[in-house]
Amino acid sequence: MNKRRPLIAATARVAMRVLYFLLVAVSLVCPSSARAQDNYEIQVYPSETMAPKTLLVELHSNFTVEGSTATQFGMLPTEHQEHETIELTEGINDWFEVGFYIFTAEKSGNGVQWAGDHIRPRLRVPARWRWPVGVSLSTELGYARPAFSNPTWSWQIMPIVDQTIGRWYWSVNGTMVWDVHVIPPPADATPEQKQIYYRDVAPRGVTFGPAATLTYAPSKYFNFGVEYYSYYGQLGNFVSVHHQQQQAFPVVNLFVSPKWEINFGAGWGATAGTDHLIVKCIIGRYFDWSHHHPGSSDSAQ
Amino acid sequence: MDRRRFMAEASAALTGAALAHVAPAWAQGAPDVKLEIAPLGLEIAPGKLVHTVAYNGHVPGPLIRWPEGKPIAIDVVNRTDIPEIVHWHGLWTPSAMDGSMEEGSPMIAPGATLRYAFTPRPSGFRWYHTHTAAMHDLKRATYTGQFGCFYIEPRSDAGAYDQEIFLTLHDWNAYPGGSGDSSMEASYEYSTIGSRMLGFADPLRVRQGQRILLHILNASASLVHWLALAGHEMTVVAMDGNPVPEPGPTRAIRLGPAERIDIVVTMNQPGVWILGETREQFRKMGMGVRVEYANQQGKPAWIEPPETLWDYRPFANAAAVSGEPDEIIPLRFESKFHGQGAFDSWTINGKSYPHTDPIMLRQGKRYRLQMTNRSTDDHPLHLHRHTFEVTSVNGMPLSGLKKDVIVAPGNAITEVDFTANNPGATLFHCHNQTHMDFGFMTLFRYA
CATH says B3-153 is which class? Predict the structure, then answer.
């Protein structure tokens, strides 16, 4: 038995977090910009959690090739921003893990800036229950600086369902986010503008933005597929399609070693509310704290 | 229905007819041992019931202790609804009595009784178990409780000890899980030593100063296990029932599926201890047993053994085997990926059983199996009806170590020598149940 979680799950991980760090790109002059997208950690989660006493260190590198170009509500434009996120995930037992994020943003003229931190406990239905699909529940709480995110404080709940069928793997993440603290609209905004602001930029209720992935594995060393990310707006009061975010990433996942995972892809946004082109890469390294080394008394083999 | 299962059922049907002819000769006299294969609800801990199949209603099955060289007759009745078979692991039996359908041994049809008759040899710690296929049904074959210890008493004294204990390791309630190389393998819900989880079995009761001889069998369908007796050093005296050339101390032992080990422990640390898996998650799953000194009470203690790098060589002769074999047989092991949601299939020299080409042997010749493992998995490789001598592991030579199962490390070459001295079809396979079910087998035949 190996303590490492299956590679398919590890690499197909998705995060519905595309909307999470929304840099409010709304313009009251040009309301079509609506709620802007901010991309710090772009992945779809699997249901499986990290094995106990195992730490996964991941570096998420995302570059927005084509995004928003104007500073709006004090938030920097996303175009040509480079985001580097460090994600640490530690397995506690066979059904619980805790993740921690350090978000940074870089752009010419602004230097490297700390953008925020999040903590993410996640639990799953243990594999030994032998459900036909994997089921897990993730929750994420954290803060991000106003220059990079609106809301600043947020709480996310995300049910995850996935399944592996032969060479195919799919996962759906139903992300719901509660904006605990949002930046208020400008003091001189008209009631109409405030209404638009609280509908499209900083909803007061719970927002919904599912993500999903479908991959195919021709060999045990790589798979390829597509990842989908979205933002629909407040539950029960979705924004118009024009203001929604719809984004698809063709992706490749490489399994070059049991200790490493690599994911890369390019995403195209289909609506005005989505950054139009983002390139992403995730490099992950597993560390085994249980001192289990092949051939040793703690070996998994 | 897969081909192997079809062949088993066809073989069982034919056996019924065949037995009608052989029964008068075989059925003379009462058997020395009776085994009944039947479903069993096994309570491994209070409230934890495992639905399995076992011999004579117990896990493990009855210990068969028999003098070397004395013929034995064993009647096996199959009270399940599928064909069964019993393999006498590590014994030099005729092919028809070995309990392997692939070698031509008959299956036992549901409701039928079959007599196995042979002369047990060589002496030492052997065992018996089902030799059926499970395929995708992880409640069958070696995933069940169909195993037991078979000790063939040597004609000479086996050694000095005060108490002799047989222990079996097993994992229960298998389900498809992930593995380190992205392929699917069996994972388990519970593990036991004997039939009970740690904390719920009768303790091993010892006295200070005693020398305890432990015969330990890993009867897991697919997992390697590591064991240690907290606070105590162990001396390895035999592997797979055969005395090792260099008995020596160790703090932890590693056993691949189907491997056995004999260790002697001098009980010199009064207290209450755990004999258990070195990995915490397996102890939590139940793999451990309480060891209790006389007049000692309390919670059993666990002390993490120092990290032990397992190596066969300290217990073997360091020198290479003298002389060359008559023939070297190269065997290349590879897997074929079918997705993370499916079991890999396995090939030997590019072919999966039953499509492998039989390898021809000549009686009296010495052969070297040069096994190139091109997978990342370690494989417990078993040769039926013969004993081999391990000659190198990962390029490191050794000699004098006699076994019938060798754990061949991943991405390495392992070599063993054996003499073709037991004519008849002889099966060679990986003892990981899913690996053998999905092609990791081949047959040797005598010319």
Answer: mainly beta
Percent residues over pLDDT 90 in chain A: 44
CB neighbours (10 Å) of residue B349? 15
Residue A300 has pLDDT above 50, yes or no: no
ipTM summary value: 0.75
Question: Encoding tokens for residue A187?
Answer: 């003091």
CA distance B373 to chain A (A): 15
Q: Residue B313 — φ and ψ, nearest 5°?
A: -60, -35
> Contact, B169 vs B289, CB < 8 A?
no
Nearest residue of B to residue A294 by CA position?
A: B309
Look at domain B327-446 and name its CATH class.
Answer: mainly beta
Residues 250-309 in B contacting A (C-alpha not used; CB under 8 Å): 251-252, 254, 278-281, 305-309
- Taking CA–CA distances from B225, the nearest residue in chain A reads A301
Q: Which chain A residues are within 8 Å of B189, Cβ to Cβ?
A: 128
Choose the closest CB to B181 out of A5, A217, A258: A258
Give the distance from residue A213's alpha carbon to the nearest chain B alpha carbon, in angstroms. Answer: 15
Contacts of B46 (CB under 8 A, 6+ apart): B200
Q: How crowded is the C-beta side of B342, counted as CA atoms within 13 Å? A: 19
* Tokens of residue A267, six digits: 């995403």
pTM for the structure as a whole: 0.85
Nearest residue of chain A to residue B309 (CA atoms): A296
CB distance from A257 to chain B under 8 Å? no
pLDDT tens digit string along B27-86?
Answer: 478 999 999 999 999 999 999 999 999 999 999 999 999 999 999 999 999 999 999 999
- How close, in Å, is residue A39 to chain B by CA atoms? 29
CA distances from A45 to A48, A122, A132, A262, B76 (A): 8, 10, 18, 14, 51
CATH number of B163-310: 2.60.40.420
Please, what are the domains in chain A?
7-288 (2.40.160.40)
Question: In Å, what is the CA distance from B208 to each residue of A38, B162, B184, B274, B301?
Answer: 69, 11, 46, 16, 17
Same fold? B3-153, B163-310: yes
Extents of the domains making up chain B: 3-153, 163-310, 327-446
Strand pairing report for B113-118 and B72-78: antiparallel
Q: Which of B183, B224, B306 sits opposite A220 (nearest CB)?
A: B183
Q: How confident is the model at residue A12 (pLDDT cuts 50, 70, 90)?
A: very low
Structure token digits, residue B17? 């007819």
Residues of B in contact with A219 (CB under 8 A): 337
A19 pLDDT above the threshold of 60: no
Check if the beta carbon of residue B291 is closer than 8 Å to that of residue B229: yes
